[in-house]
Amino acid sequence: MFKSIFMSISILVLFSVTIACSQERGRRFSLEDQIKNLKENLELTDEQVEKIKPILEKQREQMQEMRDNFDGERSEMREAMTEIREETDKKINEVLTDEQKEKYQEIQEERRSRRRRP
């Protein structure tokens, strides 16, 4: 009896942990989280934050519209989303100092390498 209760609890815990991990991996940052993260990592001024926020808002709108309305090949959508990200990065770089640009590039490379993992 004890073994079957223990086994049931173990399976439940394992199942819960698996679900929690998969949800965390797919979690998207809110706009506020993204801005907060950039502000902390790049030491942005309030003026820079005010310039970057609408850039990120526009990117989110474009990405969501694409997800909602795209009916072509998945690879085509990926390419279009890559173009949107590249344009966003270009606009953000226009707001940053040279030192911040370097750090931003490092952050983007890290993000890309995480995305490529299986």
Helix percent reads: over 70%
Decide which structural class fits the backbone: mainly alpha
- Determine the number of helices (DSSP H or I, runs of at least 4 residues): 5
N→C terminal distance: 40 Å
Bulk shape: extended
Radius of gyration: 20 Å
Question: Into which percentage range does the β-strand content fall?
Answer: under 5%
How many strands, which pairing sense, and closed or not: the largest β-sheet?
Answer: none
Count of beta strands: 0
Q: How do the helices and strands follow one another from N- to C-terminus? A: HHHHH
Mean pLDDT: 83
Q: Name the poorly predicted regions.
A: 21-26
- Counting structural domains, the number is 1
Overview of the molecule:
- The chain has one domain.
- Helices cover 86% and strands 0% of the residues.
- The protein contains five helices and no strands.
- It has helices spanning 2-25, 31-42, 46-69, 74-95, 98-116.
- The longest helix has 24 residues, at 2-25.
- It is extended.
- The N and C termini lie far apart (40 Å).
Name its key features.
mainly alpha, 118 residues, single chain
Please give a quick description of this structure:
With 118 residues, the chain is mainly alpha-helical. The protein has helices at residues 2-25, 31-42, 46-69, 74-95, 98-116.
